[in-house]
Amino acid sequence: MNSKNKFISMFVNEMYAIIIGIGIGHILFVQQLNLKNLNDMVMVLFVTTIVLTYWWDWSEYIEADVQTSKREFAIDFFILIFLESLFAYYNNPAQLAIILFILAVLDLIWMINFVWESNKESRNSIIKAKTWLKEKILVILVYACTWSIFYVFKDNLYFYLQTAIIIISFTTARYIGFRYLKKAKNLIFRPAAPSDIQAIVKINNQYTELGNNADNHGLLLKKLDMENVENSIAANTNRYFVAQTSDSVINGFIEIADHFADNLLEHIQWEDEIMRDIVLSDRTIYIEQVAVDKNFQSQGVASYLYHSIFEMFPDTVFTAFVINRPIKNTSSISFHKKQGFKKAAYFESKQFLGMTNYESILFVKSE
After folding, report:
1. Which of 82-86, 150-154, 161-165 is predicted with the least confidence, judged by mean pLDDT?
2. Can you give the residue range of the structural domain that contains 284?
3. Which of these, 24, 195, 320, 352, is most buried using a 10 Å CB contact count?
4. Which of 58, 54, 43 is nearest to 97 (CA)?
5. Final residue before a domain boundary, out of 124, 159, 183
6. 273-294: pLDDT as tens digits
């Protein structure tokens, strides 16, 4: 754990223990819980489960990445306060729905602050913030609907039915609102080592078949094998970098070169001379390929690889070819545009890598 995180970490962990102790004590000795009332017992267990779940999520998925800041402290404090209030209204499902709604809004605010702090520190703990944002908004909608049901039908809902509704709403919100964070793992970006070659080749080979769905799922024209990757690393002609999870699983790689092959230049049609001069400058890096293990797709790994390479080589012009004909690599074209690349030129050839009337787009990122 980073030393900068010790204050918030210690404070939150101690507060969770205090919340549970005070909350259960309040129910037993102030509200004088009737141990023979099954519904009350269920609700006590329910609110205790909510607090324990928040504590578990904090310790298991969040704590190690939190940066100490006044905003972080303030948001955590309010979350803890409203978690404590669950015990005060444990036998009032309608009131619990309101508190859970407020907690969902605070979770959203916490997430936005966390992502902002992560970006500010050039960290990539959460690798796809948009997905997490959608999940948090869905949770808010779930609790808003739950409270609406209680408000509209408050005179027609039996207490047992209210209990069932609030438990179902929390279970649903928990399922849809924490899936991405559980999947998102801390990533490490580093140069590829000889021990990574097998994983790189395996990932590459997942995308080298030009099937019917290649345009939707991406494709790679360059098929790698163990020998050519090993030779490239040894000769330092092409460089490979990998994205690795904290449990040492390689889930993506990027291959770069200092320039693209000279025999391609005569077939390139430039958008303008200015762009040509930018691309042919001595500060250009050619991205040969980037690929993500299909088991880790849609988790932002490719974006992580690109952002990491951008940070590693500042003030650099990045170029990448993407096939446009006879197969249109729609997913890669869209991806490069999202990363800030712009069309700089076209490469055309009547015969290229076994394909007729071949065309690819040269994308450039120079800022």
Report:
1. 150-154
2. 187-365
3. 320
4. 43
5. 183
6. 878 888 887 788 899 899 999 8
Question: Which secondary structure element, helix H or strand E, spans residue 146, and what is its range?
Answer: helix 129-152
- CATH number of the domain within which 331 lies: 3.40.630.30
Tokens linked to 80: 């803890």
Q: Are residues 279 and 174 in the same domain?
A: no
Within 8 A by CB and 6+ apart from 172, the residues are: 142
pTM score, whole prediction: 0.59
323 and 226 assigned to the same domain:
yes
Edge-to-edge, what's the strand order for the sheet holding 342-352? 187-191, 238-245, 250-257, 284-292, 317-325, 355-365, 342-352, 268-270
Give the CA dihedral 178, 251, 222, 259, nearest 10 degrees: 100
What stretches of the chain adopt beta strand conformation (E)? Answer: 187-191, 238-245, 250-257, 268-270, 284-292, 317-325, 342-352, 355-365
Specify the DSSP class assigned to residue 58. I
246: helix, coil or strand? coil
Residues with Cβ within 8 Å of 303's Cβ and at least 6 positions away in sequence, in order, are 127, 128, 338, 339
Q: For residues 82 and 215, state if they share a domain.
A: no
Q: How many domains does the chain have?
A: 2
Shared domain check, 254 and 125: no
* pLDDT surpasses 80 at 353: no
Q: What is the mean pLDDT of the chain?
A: 84
One-letter amino acid for residue 182 of the chain:
K
* Same domain flag for 193 and 94: no
Q: How confident is the model over 71-130, as pLDDT tens digits?
A: 889 999 999 999 999 999 999 999 999 999 999 999 999 988 887 776 654 444 444 566
Which of 183, 217, 244 is where one domain is finished?
183
